[in-house]
Design a protein that fits this description.
The protein is α+β, with helices and mostly antiparallel strands and 152 residues long. Helices cover 48% and strands 24% of the residues. 18% of the residues are buried.
Length: 152
């Protein structure tokens, strides 16, 4: 009887090893899709940044029938307060609901930052950036608005 019990134990051990091996094989053979891959999150941040800049650069009719975007009106009129208030509201929303931080800068054509037109902390290494060239009717006639986004 003792040998029969050993045989059952050995059979159970081998069966569990085979089942365990099949499970491991099935897990390794299945496709590895993760929704939070590095490429996906960078692409998602890039889309958010592009959308924010696109919305703020949409043409808006003013009372004098000139079609200008919010970005171009802020830059032309040197309206730092309006610029910072808008990006402050966007930043609060992104931080609260999506855990995203932002930095926005308005750059002259030579790459220097327009005084006062910066909002947010410096971006970390690997932050996603997007830019929009905004035409204005005063020299230098075009500015670059650069937006950086990153997860907190």
């Amino acid at each position: 009887m003792n040998k029969k019990g050993q045989m059952y134990t050995l059979e159970a051990l081998l069966a569990s090893l085979i089942i365990f091996g099949v499970v491991i094989f099935a897990i390794n053979a299945s496709p590895q899709f993760g929704t939070e891959t590095k490429e996906f999150t960078k692409l998602q941040l890039k889309k958010y940044a592009d959308d924010i800049l696109e919305i703020l650069d949409l043409e808006k009719s003013t009372q004098n029938l000139a079609h200008k975007s919010l970005l171009s009106m802020w830059i032309e009129n040197n309206n730092v307060t309006g610029f910072k208030n808008c990006f402050s509201r966007i930043s609060k929303y992104l931080r609260r609901y999506l855990s995203i931080m932002l930095r926005v800068e308005v750059l002259y054509p030579n790459g220097t930052i327009k005084p006062g037109f910066v909002y947010g902390p410096p971006p970390p290494e690997g932050a996603v950036s997007s830019f929009r060239v905004v035409p204005v009717s005063v020299p230098p006639y075009a500015y670059e608005v650069r937006l950086y986004l990153w997860y907190v």
